[in-house]
Amino acid sequence: MARLNLLEETRYEKLPVSVYGSQQEASLAVAARIAKLIRDKQSRGEKAVLGLATGVTPIGVYNELVRLHKEEGLSFQNVITFNLDEYYPMKPDAAQSYVTFMYENLFSHVDIDKANVHIPDGTLDKDDVVAFCLNYERQIEELGGLDLQILGIGRTGHIGFNEPGSAPNSGTRLVTLDDLTRSDAARDFGGKANVPTKAITMGIGTIFKAREIILMAWSKKKAPIIKKAVEGEMSGEVPATYLQLSDHVEFVLDEAAASELTRFDTPWLVKDCSWED
Ligand code: GLP
Q1: Cα–Cα separations (whole angstroms), residue 58 to 67, 103, 220, 263
Q2: Ligand 1 mutation pick, 23, 54, 179, max ligand atoms within 8 A of CB
Q3: pLDDT-based confidence at 10, cuts 50/70/90?
Q4: What is the DSSP letter of 118?
Q5: Which atom, in ligand 1's list, is nearest to the CA of 85?
């Protein structure tokens, strides 16, 4: 269970926020929580069901998990994973696919059973997408739900690929990407025109059901959307604001991503300050 905001200076913040001195320090802390979950489950003979994200943001966490596997014997044999999303259409062996990303950054370097890896299938025939999505939800449910979902955030406020307009109870489905999201992905695809217009994503409702949710964000680039997600009114315009309703979510930020929050940007609104010339 995440900590409540007990500090006066966090009173504009509608969900628990932890701010770390650096992205590296924050990534190590998140990786340590994941490793503890995996080991606790192992000691009880249970599976750990993880919801995983792509993007630059979680790379430090994956690097640390690989290190823990190689140097400290952390095993992934009891781990089952479900990735948030995949572009559509997308071949799994394409350089930009989330399958390639996950194998390069995590799965190829740990002892996870590949049969336990689930990533939305970007090669499906359009007629098969709905059945695939329902099955993705069913598989998660049959395993007892996600123990932990990690998230990044897009500049539109998307989590997974739940773009503005997504419903709070949405499930896994095919979506159309926001123009800003496609611009942000343009570099990976050698131009925006090459970025797929669609994706398959877990829904907000799917994410919400996870027993623990950790959203990470680093750098100044994310500061404006973090301010909206943490302090703004809940709205489909910024899908991440729906996380404000969860009592088991935590935002893990570096100082730059947190810099527009009231307690850092205008601290005199939330605590006593001594004024200088
Ligand atoms: C993509 C992914 C999201 C991710 C977001 C942010 O759109 N579908 O899951 O959170 O990008 O990416 P980055 O971490 O590279 O900033």
Answers
A1: 14, 14, 16, 25
A2: 54
A3: confident
A4: E
A5: 8
Task: Identify the pLDDT of residue 223.
Answer: 98
Q: Kindly report the protein residue whose alpha carbon is nearest to atom 10 of ligand 1.
A: 152
Strand partners, 51: 82, 149
Report the chain's terminal Cα–Cα distance, integer Å.
43
Q: How far is the CA of 54 from the centre of ligand 1 (A)?
A: 6
CB neighbours of residue 122 within 10 Å: 21
Distance 106 CA to ligand 1 centre (A): 16
Q: In CATH, what number does 15-262 get?
A: 3.40.50.1360
pLDDT at 194: 97
Catalytic residue among 163, 231, 250, 260: 163
- Each domain of the chain, given as residue ranges in start order, spans 15-262
Spell out which residues line ligand 1, taking CB within 6 angstroms: 53-57, 84-85, 152-154, 160-161, 181
In this predicted structure, the answer to whether residue 175 has a pLDDT above a threshold of 70 is: yes
And the tokens for 268?
A: 């005199």
Q: Whose CA is nearest to atom 6 of ligand 1?
A: 154
How many angstroms separate the alpha carbon of residue 155 from the centre of ligand 1?
A: 9
Q: Tell me how far the alpha carbon of residue 58 is from its chain's centroid.
A: 8
pLDDT tens, position by position, 210-257:
999 999 999 999 999 999 999 999 999 999 999 999 999 999 999 999
Q: Tens of pLDDT along 107-162?
A: 999 999 999 999 999 999 999 999 999 999 999 999 999 999 999 999 999 999 99
Please name the residue that has the structure tokens 């799917």.
206
Determine whether 163 is an active site residue.
yes
